[in-house]
Amino acid sequence: MAITVETLNRLKSQLLTSGIQDKNQALFQVINLLIDGVIQGFGEVNTQVFPSSGGGSGSLSNGTFITYGNDIATLPQSAQLLAGAGIQFNLNGRLLTISAAIPIPVDGIDGIDGEIGPPGPQGMVGATGPMGPPGLDAVCECEEVLPFIGNSIHDGLTGNFTQVI
Hints:
Layout: H1 5-17, H2 20-23, H3 25-49, E1 65-67, E2 78-80, E3 87-92, E4 95-100, E5 152-154, E6 161-163
Parallel strand pairs: 1-2
Antiparallel strand pairs: 3-4, 5-6
């Protein structure tokens, strides 16, 4: 049962005819004040939502709302939010979750690879790097063979050969 101003007025008339005013004056005053406060609260809410004097710009009835359902009958300036392709609304109580299933292609995972296109334009040539140190036989007056694993090299002083491993 919804609580309305009419329901509260009936409740107040029952309170007045119950005889509790004669038996327990303090309890009667508390209940009477509670009913009056709720009725006054309803009046203030109605004034804010549906103002009678021209409708100020701060009232809720003049606001624009985006709604999940078609609420144009109760909110004249509302717009209904519709799900597009790949979008899904999940309404759980007062919680609306918007899910999107948008496929993002990843090469090699999304299916068949396309044809390889022509190569792109050549990029800019970078700066020349620094000159490195001279190699093993940069300055050599002998016919020396560069060592590699399995060769013997001459130490140049004693005439001995050393096996490179």
